[in-house]
Amino acid sequence: MADTDSVHVHRSVLQAIAYRMLGSMAEAEDAVQETFLRWHRQDQAQQLSEIREPKAWLITTLTRHCIDRLRAAKAQRESYVGMWLPEPVVEEPAVEPVDRLELAETLSMALLMLLERLSPDERAAFLLHEVFETDYPDVARILGKTEAACRQLVHRAKERVKAGKPRFTPSRAEQEKVMEGFKRAVASGDVAGLAASFSSDATLYSDGGGKAAATLNPIFGAEKIARFFIGVRDKQPEGARIEPRIVNGSLGYVVTLGERVLQASHFEFDGDRITAVHIVRNPDKLKHLM
């Protein structure tokens, strides 16, 4: 049994699970907080002595809470204005730790968007088993299902996710090389050079949530995306700064104006080309970056 304070050492793994489940930093933080509140209620009811594995209890409670939130959010997502993208996770550029490469890939916008197509149970089973390396008996216990049912959930999820994963994820240095060419082409207005930075079937997604200017539908194709970037190049407000950042595990940038974050842009790479761009402009999804 753990005391009521020592369980907070598990906050980081709970936060990681919750974000990948919900696609929202704010909702993930709320879910983790609710999990700890439930733990404290157990403490007040003097029931902690019955909990032999606090971490397992916390993950189970959190996962089930996230599943409930996903089911409740379904109608909201369906009525969302324009394209729905996950809230961005933004870090300062730094040397890329080798042991973080695989986990960083699970933060990609493309994967999180694919997870949106799964049922809440499929999403939970896939993340627990494939990302957080939870054994099937524990996945079954967390979800309250049989091991066979959980294996089937993971199998279906893997089949749906596999089609959207990049064939090759380049290193940080290779991403930087691609982004340098991207920035030069944007600065010079070179549409052909900019289009060469993208794969022929690249896609751009933009999320304004009806609260900021954004494309309502995806933009398909290298040349159309290149023209989009050239078109918006000179439309940034005076004083806006474009700052390189790590966005959801890969190179990207944020646009700031004073203390406000106006936009976070995430790029997906496959070899030496950009395959997707995800632009988050909904101010509600940028509050945690300020």
UniProtKB/TrEMBL annotation:
InterPro entries found in the cross-reference section: ECF_Sigma-70_Domain, NTF2-like_dom_sf, RNA_pol_sigma-70_dom, RNA_pol_sigma-70_ECF, RNA_pol_sigma70_r2, RNA_pol_sigma70_r4_t2, RNA_pol_sigma_r2, RNA_pol_sigma_r3/r4-like
Signal peptide: none
Domain RNA polymerase sigma-70 region: start-end pairs: 10-74
Pfam families: Sigma70_r2, Sigma70_r4_2
All residue ranges annotated as the RNA polymerase sigma factor 70 region 4 type domain in the record: 109-160
Matching SUPFAM superfamilies: NTF2-like (SSF54427), Sigma2 domain of RNA polymerase sigma factors (SSF88946), Sigma3 and sigma4 domains of RNA polymerase sigma factors (SSF88659)
Recorded superkingdom: Bacteria
Complex and partners: Interacts transiently with the RNA polymerase catalytic core formed by RpoA, RpoB, RpoC and RpoZ (2 alpha, 1 beta, 1 beta' and 1 omega subunit) to form the RNA polymerase holoenzyme that can initiate transcription.
Protein name: RNA polymerase sigma-70 factor
Native source organism of the sequence: Dongia sedimenti
